[in-house]
Amino acid sequence: MKLEEKLFLDRYVVDEDNPHLKIKDPELCQKCEKKQCLYACPAGVYTWDGKQITVAYADCLECGTCRIVCREHDNIDWKYPRGGYGVSFKFG
């Protein structure tokens, strides 16, 4: 089973009013040479369009990998979603 098929099994309840994941300073991402978040996130939450990072926080698996790999600039504001929101794993 492909990763995309496995991720489809998860259920997300998105908190539009209070996102649990965001970039602190988007301009700082432009200076980041490695952009580790693009490659380390297992759900592919981060994308780079050549000018800025986009965060698809609704797809987040809440693993915290991004905040660990962004040590160079500490530019990711990550917290657990408030109660009733976030990811629910259906099978496993």
Strand segment count: 6
CATH architecture descriptor text: 2-Layer Sandwich
Average residue-wise pLDDT: 89
Structural class: alpha+beta
C-alpha geometry: globular
Q: What is the CATH class name? A: Alpha Beta
Percentage of residues in DSSP E strands: 15-25%
In a few lines, what is going on in this structure?
This protein is an alpha+beta fold and 92 residues long.
Secondary-structure map:
Layout: H1 3-8, E1 11-13, E2 21-23, H2 26-31, H3 36-40, E3 46-48, E4 53-55, H4 65-69, E5 76-78, E6 86-88
Antiparallel strand pairs: 1-6, 2-5, 3-4
Task: Write a structural description.
This protein is α+β, with helices and mostly antiparallel strands. It has one domain: Alpha-Beta Plaits. Helices cover about 25% and strands about 20% of the residues. It is built from 4 helices and 6 strands; from the N terminus they run αββααββαββ. The strands form 3 sheets. Strands 1-6 form a two-stranded antiparallel sheet. The two termini are about 15 Å apart.
